[in-house]
Design a protein that fits this description.
By secondary structure, the chain is of the alpha+beta class. It is built from 14 helices and seven strands. It has two domains: 204 residues, H-NOX domain, CATH 3.90.1520; 102 residues, Homeodomain-like (Arc Repressor Mutant, subunit A, Orthogonal Bundle), CATH 1.10.10.60. The strands form two sheets. A five-stranded mixed sheet has the order 3-4-7-5-6. The protein has a two-stranded antiparallel ribbon with strand order 1-2. The mean pLDDT is 84.
Length: 313
Protein backbone atom coordinates (compact mmCIF):
# COMPACT_ATOMS: atom_id res chain seq x y z
CA UNK A 1 0.00 0.00 0.00
CA UNK A 2 2.85 2.40 0.90
CA UNK A 3 0.77 4.92 2.83
CA UNK A 4 0.05 6.29 6.29
CA UNK A 5 -3.22 6.62 8.23
CA UNK A 6 -4.57 10.13 8.77
CA UNK A 7 -4.20 9.98 12.58
CA UNK A 8 -0.46 9.44 12.22
CA UNK A 9 -0.24 12.57 10.05
CA UNK A 10 -2.08 14.94 12.40
CA UNK A 11 1.09 16.67 13.63
CA UNK A 12 2.27 17.40 10.06
CA UNK A 13 -1.13 18.44 8.66
CA UNK A 14 0.18 21.97 7.98
CA UNK A 15 2.73 20.58 5.53
CA UNK A 16 0.43 18.23 3.59
CA UNK A 17 -1.46 19.19 0.40
CA UNK A 18 -4.94 20.47 1.26
CA UNK A 19 -6.61 17.74 -0.81
CA UNK A 20 -5.16 15.00 1.42
CA UNK A 21 -6.78 16.20 4.64
CA UNK A 22 -10.03 14.39 3.89
CA UNK A 23 -8.33 11.14 2.87
CA UNK A 24 -8.20 8.23 5.32
CA UNK A 25 -4.76 7.24 3.99
CA UNK A 26 -1.91 9.54 2.95
CA UNK A 27 0.43 8.29 0.17
CA UNK A 28 3.94 7.53 1.40
CA UNK A 29 5.55 10.03 -0.98
CA UNK A 30 3.35 12.86 0.31
CA UNK A 31 4.03 11.88 3.93
CA UNK A 32 7.79 11.95 3.34
CA UNK A 33 7.54 15.24 1.43
CA UNK A 34 5.59 16.81 4.32
CA UNK A 35 8.25 15.69 6.80
CA UNK A 36 11.00 17.19 4.66
CA UNK A 37 9.08 20.44 4.20
CA UNK A 38 8.42 20.69 7.93
CA UNK A 39 12.11 20.18 8.71
CA UNK A 40 12.98 22.89 6.19
CA UNK A 41 10.47 25.40 7.54
CA UNK A 42 11.38 24.67 11.16
CA UNK A 43 15.07 24.88 10.23
CA UNK A 44 15.73 21.76 12.30
CA UNK A 45 17.61 18.79 10.77
CA UNK A 46 16.31 16.68 13.67
CA UNK A 47 12.67 17.75 13.33
CA UNK A 48 11.53 14.14 12.93
CA UNK A 49 13.15 13.44 16.31
CA UNK A 50 11.08 16.20 17.92
CA UNK A 51 7.93 14.80 16.28
CA UNK A 52 8.75 11.32 17.55
CA UNK A 53 8.82 12.56 21.14
CA UNK A 54 5.16 13.54 20.75
CA UNK A 55 3.98 10.11 19.53
CA UNK A 56 1.28 8.52 21.67
CA UNK A 57 -1.52 6.00 21.30
CA UNK A 58 -3.88 8.55 19.71
CA UNK A 59 -1.68 8.55 16.60
CA UNK A 60 -2.34 4.83 16.11
CA UNK A 61 -6.14 4.90 16.01
CA UNK A 62 -7.73 1.61 17.07
CA UNK A 63 -4.29 0.04 17.33
CA UNK A 64 -3.36 2.64 19.94
CA UNK A 65 -6.28 1.62 22.14
CA UNK A 66 -5.31 -2.02 21.73
CA UNK A 67 -1.74 -1.24 22.80
CA UNK A 68 -2.94 0.69 25.84
CA UNK A 69 -5.16 -2.18 26.92
CA UNK A 70 -2.36 -4.76 26.73
CA UNK A 71 -1.19 -6.49 29.89
CA UNK A 72 2.57 -6.26 29.40
CA UNK A 73 4.99 -4.42 27.15
CA UNK A 74 5.64 -7.66 25.24
CA UNK A 75 1.92 -7.95 24.45
CA UNK A 76 1.86 -4.30 23.32
CA UNK A 77 4.93 -4.78 21.11
CA UNK A 78 3.38 -7.90 19.60
CA UNK A 79 0.25 -5.93 18.71
CA UNK A 80 2.25 -3.09 17.18
CA UNK A 81 4.37 -5.46 15.11
CA UNK A 82 1.38 -7.48 13.94
CA UNK A 83 -0.76 -4.54 12.87
CA UNK A 84 1.75 -1.72 12.25
CA UNK A 85 1.06 -1.58 8.50
CA UNK A 86 -2.57 -0.66 9.20
CA UNK A 87 -1.13 2.58 10.64
CA UNK A 88 1.89 3.26 8.45
CA UNK A 89 2.90 1.01 5.57
CA UNK A 90 6.17 2.81 4.86
CA UNK A 91 8.73 0.20 5.85
CA UNK A 92 9.47 -3.22 7.30
CA UNK A 93 9.80 -3.84 11.05
CA UNK A 94 11.50 -6.86 12.64
CA UNK A 95 11.72 -7.98 16.27
CA UNK A 96 14.32 -10.33 17.74
CA UNK A 97 14.93 -11.47 21.30
CA UNK A 98 17.66 -13.31 23.19
CA UNK A 99 17.95 -14.15 26.89
CA UNK A 100 19.12 -10.70 27.90
CA UNK A 101 18.44 -8.37 25.00
CA UNK A 102 15.70 -7.60 22.51
CA UNK A 103 15.91 -5.57 19.32
CA UNK A 104 13.47 -3.74 17.07
CA UNK A 105 14.85 -2.99 13.60
CA UNK A 106 13.06 -0.90 11.00
CA UNK A 107 13.86 -0.33 7.34
CA UNK A 108 11.76 2.22 5.43
CA UNK A 109 10.99 1.67 1.77
CA UNK A 110 12.82 4.94 1.18
CA UNK A 111 15.73 6.21 3.25
CA UNK A 112 13.91 9.34 4.49
CA UNK A 113 15.85 10.92 7.34
CA UNK A 114 12.89 12.57 9.10
CA UNK A 115 10.69 9.47 8.85
CA UNK A 116 13.45 7.36 10.40
CA UNK A 117 13.92 9.85 13.23
CA UNK A 118 10.21 10.08 13.94
CA UNK A 119 9.65 6.33 13.82
CA UNK A 120 12.61 5.29 15.97
CA UNK A 121 12.03 8.05 18.52
CA UNK A 122 8.31 7.27 18.54
CA UNK A 123 8.94 3.66 19.61
CA UNK A 124 10.82 4.80 22.72
CA UNK A 125 8.40 7.65 23.48
CA UNK A 126 5.43 5.27 23.24
CA UNK A 127 7.05 2.72 25.56
CA UNK A 128 7.83 5.38 28.14
CA UNK A 129 4.25 6.66 28.07
CA UNK A 130 2.47 3.31 28.33
CA UNK A 131 4.78 2.00 31.08
CA UNK A 132 5.13 5.26 33.01
CA UNK A 133 8.88 4.70 33.20
CA UNK A 134 11.73 6.63 31.59
CA UNK A 135 13.35 3.55 30.09
CA UNK A 136 16.68 3.78 28.29
CA UNK A 137 17.75 1.46 25.47
CA UNK A 138 21.22 -0.11 25.32
CA UNK A 139 21.96 1.18 21.84
CA UNK A 140 20.25 3.05 18.98
CA UNK A 141 21.46 2.65 15.39
CA UNK A 142 20.49 5.04 12.58
CA UNK A 143 21.36 4.77 8.90
CA UNK A 144 21.50 8.53 8.28
CA UNK A 145 24.58 10.67 8.90
CA UNK A 146 24.54 13.25 11.73
CA UNK A 147 27.00 15.80 13.08
CA UNK A 148 28.65 15.16 16.45
CA UNK A 149 26.41 17.81 18.02
CA UNK A 150 23.29 16.15 16.58
CA UNK A 151 24.38 12.72 17.83
CA UNK A 152 24.87 14.17 21.33
CA UNK A 153 21.39 15.72 21.18
CA UNK A 154 19.89 12.35 20.26
CA UNK A 155 21.94 10.42 22.82
CA UNK A 156 20.89 12.80 25.60
CA UNK A 157 17.21 11.98 25.10
CA UNK A 158 17.59 8.27 24.31
CA UNK A 159 19.96 7.91 27.28
CA UNK A 160 22.34 5.58 25.45
CA UNK A 161 24.92 5.37 22.69
CA UNK A 162 23.58 6.48 19.30
CA UNK A 163 25.44 5.29 16.18
CA UNK A 164 24.89 7.02 12.85
CA UNK A 165 25.76 5.76 9.34
CA UNK A 166 24.72 2.30 10.56
CA UNK A 167 23.66 -0.56 8.33
CA UNK A 168 20.18 -0.58 9.88
CA UNK A 169 17.81 1.45 12.06
CA UNK A 170 17.53 -0.46 15.33
CA UNK A 171 16.83 -0.13 19.05
CA UNK A 172 18.42 -2.69 21.37
CA UNK A 173 17.14 -2.91 24.95
CA UNK A 174 16.93 -5.19 28.02
CA UNK A 175 14.63 -8.17 27.47
CA UNK A 176 13.35 -7.75 31.03
CA UNK A 177 11.57 -4.56 29.88
CA UNK A 178 9.12 -6.80 28.01
CA UNK A 179 7.65 -8.00 31.31
CA UNK A 180 6.73 -4.49 32.47
CA UNK A 181 3.02 -3.86 33.07
CA UNK A 182 1.08 -1.36 30.96
CA UNK A 183 -0.42 1.46 32.99
CA UNK A 184 -3.79 1.57 31.24
CA UNK A 185 -4.46 -2.17 31.23
CA UNK A 186 -8.13 -2.90 30.49
CA UNK A 187 -9.10 -6.50 29.75
CA UNK A 188 -12.62 -5.62 28.59
CA UNK A 189 -11.40 -3.07 26.09
CA UNK A 190 -8.75 -5.51 24.89
CA UNK A 191 -11.26 -8.30 24.40
CA UNK A 192 -13.46 -6.08 22.22
CA UNK A 193 -10.79 -4.19 20.32
CA UNK A 194 -8.62 -7.14 19.32
CA UNK A 195 -11.29 -8.64 17.02
CA UNK A 196 -11.92 -5.18 15.53
CA UNK A 197 -8.28 -4.55 14.75
CA UNK A 198 -8.00 -8.08 13.30
CA UNK A 199 -10.90 -7.28 10.97
CA UNK A 200 -9.19 -4.04 9.99
CA UNK A 201 -5.95 -5.90 9.34
CA UNK A 202 -7.68 -8.50 7.17
CA UNK A 203 -9.52 -5.82 5.22
CA UNK A 204 -6.32 -3.87 4.72
CA UNK A 205 -4.36 -6.94 3.65
CA UNK A 206 -7.03 -8.11 1.21
CA UNK A 207 -7.45 -4.68 -0.35
CA UNK A 208 -4.84 -5.20 -3.04
CA UNK A 209 -4.28 -1.72 -4.38
CA UNK A 210 -3.12 -1.07 -7.91
CA UNK A 211 0.40 -0.32 -6.65
CA UNK A 212 0.54 -3.54 -4.61
CA UNK A 213 -0.46 -5.56 -7.68
CA UNK A 214 2.25 -3.84 -9.70
CA UNK A 215 5.07 -4.94 -7.39
CA UNK A 216 5.46 -8.60 -8.53
CA UNK A 217 5.78 -7.45 -12.13
CA UNK A 218 8.32 -4.80 -11.19
CA UNK A 219 10.31 -7.27 -9.06
CA UNK A 220 10.72 -9.67 -12.00
CA UNK A 221 11.36 -7.25 -14.86
CA UNK A 222 14.65 -6.43 -16.62
CA UNK A 223 15.43 -2.89 -15.53
CA UNK A 224 18.00 -2.46 -18.32
CA UNK A 225 15.23 -2.63 -20.90
CA UNK A 226 12.35 -1.22 -18.88
CA UNK A 227 10.39 1.82 -20.04
CA UNK A 228 6.98 3.30 -19.22
CA UNK A 229 5.51 1.73 -22.36
CA UNK A 230 6.99 -1.70 -21.64
CA UNK A 231 5.80 -1.72 -18.04
CA UNK A 232 2.34 -0.63 -19.17
CA UNK A 233 2.23 -3.49 -21.68
CA UNK A 234 3.31 -5.99 -19.00
CA UNK A 235 0.48 -4.85 -16.73
CA UNK A 236 -2.14 -4.75 -19.46
CA UNK A 237 -2.71 -1.01 -19.44
CA UNK A 238 -1.68 2.08 -21.39
CA UNK A 239 1.32 4.28 -20.67
CA UNK A 240 -0.99 7.21 -19.91
CA UNK A 241 -3.04 5.15 -17.43
CA UNK A 242 0.13 3.86 -15.79
CA UNK A 243 1.47 7.36 -15.33
CA UNK A 244 -1.89 8.55 -13.95
CA UNK A 245 -1.90 5.75 -11.37
CA UNK A 246 1.68 6.53 -10.39
CA UNK A 247 0.86 10.21 -9.95
CA UNK A 248 -2.10 9.34 -7.68
CA UNK A 249 0.38 7.48 -5.45
CA UNK A 250 2.81 10.40 -5.42
CA UNK A 251 5.24 8.59 -7.73
CA UNK A 252 6.83 8.99 -11.15
CA UNK A 253 8.18 6.18 -13.33
CA UNK A 254 11.78 7.16 -12.51
CA UNK A 255 10.98 7.15 -8.78
CA UNK A 256 9.37 3.73 -9.09
CA UNK A 257 12.46 2.34 -10.81
CA UNK A 258 14.69 3.98 -8.19
CA UNK A 259 12.77 2.23 -5.39
CA UNK A 260 13.08 -1.13 -7.16
CA UNK A 261 16.81 -0.64 -7.69
CA UNK A 262 17.28 0.14 -4.02
CA UNK A 263 15.23 -2.92 -3.03
CA UNK A 264 17.32 -5.19 -5.26
CA UNK A 265 20.58 -3.74 -3.97
CA UNK A 266 19.74 -4.31 -0.30
CA UNK A 267 18.64 -7.88 -1.05
CA UNK A 268 21.55 -9.01 -3.24
CA UNK A 269 24.50 -6.72 -2.41
CA UNK A 270 26.29 -9.35 -0.32
CA UNK A 271 25.77 -12.30 -2.68
CA UNK A 272 26.47 -10.81 -6.13
CA UNK A 273 29.54 -9.18 -7.63
CA UNK A 274 29.45 -5.47 -8.42
CA UNK A 275 29.18 -6.24 -12.11
CA UNK A 276 26.24 -8.61 -11.56
CA UNK A 277 24.60 -6.10 -9.22
CA UNK A 278 24.98 -3.32 -11.78
CA UNK A 279 23.27 -5.45 -14.42
CA UNK A 280 20.50 -6.53 -12.04
CA UNK A 281 19.79 -2.91 -11.16
CA UNK A 282 19.76 -1.92 -14.83
CA UNK A 283 22.98 0.12 -14.86
CA UNK A 284 25.29 0.07 -17.87
CA UNK A 285 28.38 0.61 -15.72
CA UNK A 286 29.50 0.09 -12.12
CA UNK A 287 30.11 3.81 -11.65
CA UNK A 288 26.34 4.38 -11.85
CA UNK A 289 25.83 1.78 -9.12
CA UNK A 290 28.44 3.48 -6.92
CA UNK A 291 26.75 6.88 -7.33
CA UNK A 292 23.31 5.44 -6.57
CA UNK A 293 24.42 3.71 -3.36
CA UNK A 294 26.13 6.87 -2.16
CA UNK A 295 22.91 8.77 -2.83
CA UNK A 296 20.86 6.21 -0.87
CA UNK A 297 23.18 5.48 2.05
CA UNK A 298 26.03 8.00 1.97
CA UNK A 299 28.65 5.30 1.45
CA UNK A 300 30.13 3.06 -1.23
CA UNK A 301 28.67 -0.39 -2.02
CA UNK A 302 31.71 -2.05 -0.44
CA UNK A 303 31.30 -0.03 2.77
CA UNK A 304 27.61 -0.86 2.90
CA UNK A 305 28.24 -4.60 2.47
CA UNK A 306 31.03 -4.63 5.04
CA UNK A 307 28.85 -2.95 7.68
CA UNK A 308 25.92 -5.22 6.85
CA UNK A 309 28.07 -8.31 7.34
CA UNK A 310 29.50 -6.94 10.60
CA UNK A 311 26.01 -6.27 11.98
CA UNK A 312 24.93 -9.89 11.40
CA UNK A 313 27.92 -11.54 13.09
Amino acid sequence: MFDVCRQYCQVIADYLPANTLLQSRIPMAQYFAALDEGAKQQDDPLWGFELGKQVDSAHYGLLGYLVESSTTLLEAVDALLLFDKTVADIGVCQFSQSNRQACIAWQPYENNRQAILRNMTGWVAMVRKITGKTLYPHHVELTSHYTDMQVRRLASWFGCTVSDKAIRNAITFDSEFLNLAILTKNELVNANLYPLIQDLHRAYSSDQSWLAKLQPTLHSCDLQQMSVTQLADMTGTSARTLQRHLKSHGLSFSKLVEQERKRRFTLFCDVLSKQALSELLGYAEQASLNRAVRRWYGQSPSEYVRKKQQSTR
